[in-house]
Write a structure and sequence with these properties.
Strands 2, 4, 5, 6, 9, 10 and 11 form a 7-stranded mixed sheet that branches. Strands 1-3-8-7 form a 4-stranded antiparallel sheet, with no helix packed on it. It is mainly β. About 0% of the residues lie in helices and about 50% in strands. It is globular and about 40 Å long.
Length: about 110
Amino acid sequence: QLVESGGGLVEPGGSLRVSCAASGFIFSAFSMSWYRQPSGKERELVATIDPTGRRKNYADSVRGRFIISRDNFQKMLYLQMNSLKPDDSAVYYCRVQFKQSQSWGQGTQVTVSS
């Protein structure tokens, strides 16, 4: 199970951190990802992190502004979002890919607006 939290309303240029609490699987064994889905658009990959937390990949649109991280002891995934833009407004989801299935959280809304 994945449960996101931390979304909200933030002004352009501001920062926000969203979190994802994992349970029911061996969190430290799997890569994790953040996706987002702007209203009326398709869901897109934002960032991924390997099981150790050492290797991270970002979409071009967020590289240099967002930081993905994880705490394997607490079974938590994080996305620190800085220099936020209105185009970053979306529902943010965490995801885990298993061998033959995947799991998504319910999402948390992030709105960037003045």
